[in-house]
Structure formats: C-alpha cells, structure tokens
Design a protein that fits this description.
The chain is an alpha+beta fold. The protein folds into 2 domains: 3-248, 3-Layer(aba) Sandwich (Aminopeptidase), CATH 3.40.630; 258-328, RNA polymerase II/Efflux pump adaptor protein, barrel-sandwich hybrid domain (OB fold (Dihydrolipoamide Acetyltransferase, E2P), Beta Barrel). It has 7 helices and 19 strands. It has a 15-stranded mixed beta sheet that branches. It has a 4-stranded antiparallel beta sheet with strand order 16-15-13-18, with no helix packed on it. Helix 1 links the parallel strand 4 and strand 5 (78-83). Helix 1 crosses helix 6 (214-231). The longest helix has 18 residues, at 214-231. The N and C termini lie far apart (42 Å). 45% of the residues are buried. The structure holds zinc ion.
Amino acid sequence: MIHTSIDLARSGKQQGFLQVPYSHNLGGWANVMVPITVIARGEGPTVLCLGGNHGDEYQGQVAIMRLAHEVAPEQVSGRLILVPSLNMPAAKAATRLSPLDGMNMNRAFPGHPEGSVTSQIAHYLTTVLFPASDVVIDIHSGGRSMEFVPCSHMHLVPDKAQRRKMLAAMLAWNSDFSFLYADIAGTGLLPVEAENQGKLVITTEMGGGEGIPARVHRITQSGLRNVLIHCGVLAGKEETRAGLGLPPAILTQALHRDDYLLAPESGVFEVAVDLGEKVRRGDTVGWIHFLERPDRAAEPIQARSDGYLITMRAPCLTSQGDCVAVIAQEVSVDEVLHA
Ligand SMILES: [Zn+2]
C-alpha cells in the first residue's frame, strides 16, 4: 500500500517520501509522508540507517538528516538508504508511540500490508528495505523515559559468524560503553526481524531524556560515520579508540531479568549513583519517595547483580513496574563470541 517515487535501483542521490495512506476526518486521500534519501554509486554494500523508530529519540534523527545533506554520491561505494524519522507522526509529536494508532514501531514487526500506519511501515521494511540491505542501523536513545550511558548495543544472535560481524561493527561506534541486551518486554522488534533475515544489525542507546548534550550529538554522529566507513559504504579512514588515544570500550551485558530493576511502588525516584558507575550486588541504586507520606521512609532499590549502571529512569515521577535502573556486567570479547 506504500507508494514512493524513490527507485532503489538508480544511482546518484534521490530524496523523496514513503507515502502511507492515512484517511482521517479532515483528509480522505491523505498520506503520512516519511522522508527517505537514497545515495548510490557502483559496487558495495547496502546500508539502511534508521532514526526515530521511537519518535521522541532525536539523536539519530539529527545524525541521519546530516548524512542526507552532507554525503555526496562520490563518497559512497554501494548504497546508503537514509530514513531519519521512521515513525514520523511520533517524531512530530515528540512521543515514543505513534499518535495515529497508539503503536510502538519497535513492537510492530513483521507488520501488515493492510494494517495501521505503523504496521504498514513495519511491513514495508520487512518486505522491501531489509531484503535490499546488507546492514541495518537503528539508532535509539532513552527518549523521554530513560537516560543511558551513550552506547552502541546489540543482541546476542545465535549465528556465530553474524554475531562476530555485529560485534566488530558495534565496537566501531567507538563509544565508551557497548551493551548486550535482552528483550524483557515483548516481541516484534525491528532489529530482531532484520537479524532473522541474516542482516548485520547495529543499534544504539545514545543518552536520553529531553535535553541532549553536544557531546552526545558528537558521539552519535562520529560513531555513525565510523560504522559506515567500517562497513565499506562511506569513503574515509576508520578510526579506532586506540588511535583516538582512548582506553578500550567497556563491553557489558544485561541478559537476565534480575539486571532490570523495576519500581516496587509508585512514587518519586531518586538515583543514588551516577550513570556508568560500578555497583555491587546489594548496593542501593536509588530510592522511591512517597509524596503523600513524608512520615514514611523512602523505599531503597537494591542492585541484584554486580555491574555498571547503564541506564536509569529519566523522569523522577515513577509508577509501580516502571524500569528505574539496569545493571550491566562487564564481559570480554571472547565471552561474547563463544557464549
Ligand atoms: Zn527507542
């Protein structure tokens, strides 16, 4: 059902839209317009760069818009497909979920050709853009709900050759932390669909919250460019952390339910340690305060594992069952490759 003027087989730079039919009260023939840029030249891999999977995560949207402006076909070997704001209605509304159908793009896969707007976009990726790609990059941050240590991240995919390539590409982001995560909240994720199609998939959590510091924009943009150079689609010299005078990245994982700390009651969350700081099992990571009960002691939230505080809840106001902190354990490259 999605229409586009873009011809994926053509060389050079094309800019257009994915047009998703959306009939509403004030527009019978209306379309949701999702901007797409394709830059292609000669032989090489096809790399799909996605931002705005969650609309309130702008780091990747800015980084990919920059590429759409700045990259010329002469700098490309293969094909770059750039979709800065995948969930465009959510990006315009600064929301995680689409305001049109209430759907989470990152739970909508594989999607449906006659489903709602979000479901149709997911289906287009599953059936058109993923099959056309070798590499899929999906740039997230914590949005308005979480604040992360800026990190590249990935799933521990079962195929060892695919895992090795994904690990190398993840580390090419050159962020201080990299993170292996588990899906503790549902199915239908974009990266899982791309991984199941055998693609090299790289994802990130570039900070979060509503204010984005300049250093977070910088690592999002320099990391993305370096990964594109690493994949061979963009001209340039690949940088390493050693070459930049930096220590090796801290590789971490949170694969167990215990690593994800949820609020036992509703209240105001106070964090006790800084992001990226080490904690030990039993340490207090934060507290829940009860606005209506100053007589009541704050409820401590304790780490159930040793590791780094990789992410925390961004808003203080917290409901029972919200994730307030994730503790990630350090792992070696060898452990990741052979696990
Ligand atoms: Zn996200």
